[in-house]
Specification:
Chain lengths: ~110, ~120
């Protein structure tokens, strides 16, 4: 069945550092891919999405490119802020329900 | 601000109580979802309603009973819960149940504690 694998956390970075959170997937067909973010005490928010190969999703300085050849959708940001501290979930939707990765907790130190 | 509103934010209930969680959205979405999230875990799907009809029940125990009175409202009725049911319960909606441009919109959840 479909699955999502993302890097284990927690990830701790200093403010203004470069961020990469790896996400790879297994799916039949051509799924849509998403990154969701969950801030403390809140629900999940859609951060960005890509619906087909080579699409780049972007929002709030974050980017991810749908790479079919490597089945990846890595999340990147050039300069993180303390306010980016949260849990990040990679997700895919194929023909069935949305599948979430286990989540990566990100801590940004001032 | 989230466009999916959940009440209450916190709920403490005994194992013999009956309570309900409520969810409301006014985005015109036709699919609504209940998820359960334990600490440091991803959300787990419980139920999906599509066009006000139950579409998916992920083998959830009968002590959880969903209800969709209309296209904007979703309830989760709780009865005789167990302490292990303590979790964050998230409601979500999407334009349609499945589709590449139909991401989930989540509420901020109800933090449930069963004593």
């Amino acid at each position: 069945g479909d699955s999502v694998t993302q890097m284990e956390g927690p990830v701790t970075l200093s403010e203004e550092a470069f961020l990469t959170i790896n996400c790879t997937y297994t799916a039949t067909g051509y799924p849509s891919l998403f990154w969701y973010v969950q801030y403390p005490g809140e629900g999940l928010q859609l951060l960005l999405k890509a619906t087909k190969a080579d699409d780049k999703g972007s929002n709030k300085g974050f980017e991810a490119t749908y790479r079919k050849e490597t089945t990846s959708f890595h999340l990147e940001k050039g300069s993180v802020q303390v306010s980016d501290s949260a849990v990040y979930f990679c997700a895919l939707q194929g023909d069935d329900k949305i599948i979430f990765g286990k989540g990566t907790r990100l801590h940004i130190l001032p | 601000d989230t466009e999916v509103t959940q009440t209450p934010k916190h709920l403490v209930m005994g194992m013999t109580n009956k309570k309900s969680l409520k969810c409301e959205q006014h985005m015109g979405h036709r699919a609504m979802y209940w998820y359960k999230q334990k600490a440091k875990k991803p959300p787990e799907l419980m139920f999906v309603y599509s066009y006000e009809k139950l579409s998916i029940n992920e083998s959830v125990p009968s002590r959880f009973s969903p209800e969709c009175p209309n296209s904007s409202l979703l309830n989760l009725h709780l009865h005789a819960l167990q302490p292990e049911d303590s979790a964050l319960y998230l409601c979500a909606s999407s334009q349609v149940e499945r589709g590449p441009n139909s991401p989930l919109h989540f509420g901020n959840g109800t933090r449930l504690t069963v004593t």
